Amino acid sequence: MIQTVKTKACLNNHIFEFVIPTPDGKFIARYSEAGLCELNFPSSQPGDPPIQPGPEPPEIIRKWHAQTVGALSDALTGRGPDRFPPLDLSAGSDFQQRVWRALLKIKNGETRSYGEVASAIGNAKAVRAVGGACGANPVPVLVPCHRVLAAHQKLGGFSSDMSWKKKLLAREGVRPADGWAK
DNA sequence: TAAGTGCGTCGTT
DNA sequence: AACGACGCACTTA
């Protein structure tokens, strides 16, 4: 159902940019030659994101994009995506990349606390820093930073609208006893 | 129980 | 040197 629209050669690097229309709004995906390097939530601001038509992207990138579109569609409906595009997380620091890789291991419908993620990357005391890395996640939804909660199933924070965190968790069937989900 | 304070910790700016 | 999508101990109400 979701169709790609336009592409754009961005900056001087070979970055291709796509809009992904979904029932939840227009996401924006960006690709480097290594894979999906950025996925943005729909802008809360009114008005369309200005994306200029660009050169036709290489075959491989169109393939990756098709995988992204499918994975995003699955994720937004609470299903665990089976096909992922390759991810280019190289923009992050070593620490951030370790965190993001750890997030990828959290299965659909599961959650971890910031502390558990910290332990998982072998840096148990870097709890707060893990929160920072989650906030810097360049590929939200697919890299499931929304599955990281505070201790004792408390919701914790989110960089963009908290409603996204609640929404994504609810669609995966995560409903803590407290009843923060709405 | 629920909410608020203080402090340790650590990566990032 | 200051700031967080934290966690924990400890107060108050």
Describe this structure in words.
With about 180 residues, the chain is of the alpha+beta class. The chain has helices spanning about 60-75, 95-105, 115-120, 125-135, 160-170; strands at about 10, 15-20, 25-30, 35-40, 110-115, 150. Helix content is about 30%, strand content about 15%. It binds a DNA duplex (13 and 13 nucleotides) through helix 3, helix 4 and strand 6.
Fold topology:
Layout: E1 9-10, E2 15-22, E3 25-32, E4 35-40, H1 59-76, H2 94-104, E5 112-113, H3 114-120, H4 127-135, E6 148-149, H5 162-171
The structure holds a DNA duplex (13 and 13 nucleotides).
Care to give the gist of this entry?
The chain is of the alpha+beta class.
Shape, per Cα inertia axes: globular
Helical content class: 25-40%
Share of β-strand residues: 15-25%
Radius of gyration: 16 Å
Side by side, the strands of the main sheet go: 1-2-3-4
| Sheet/helix structural class | alpha+beta
Q: What's the N-to-C terminus distance?
A: 28 Å
Mean pLDDT: 90
Please summarize the sheet with the most strands. 4 strands, antiparallel
Poorly predicted runs are: 1-6
List keywords for this structure.
4-stranded antiparallel sheet; alpha+beta; 6 strands
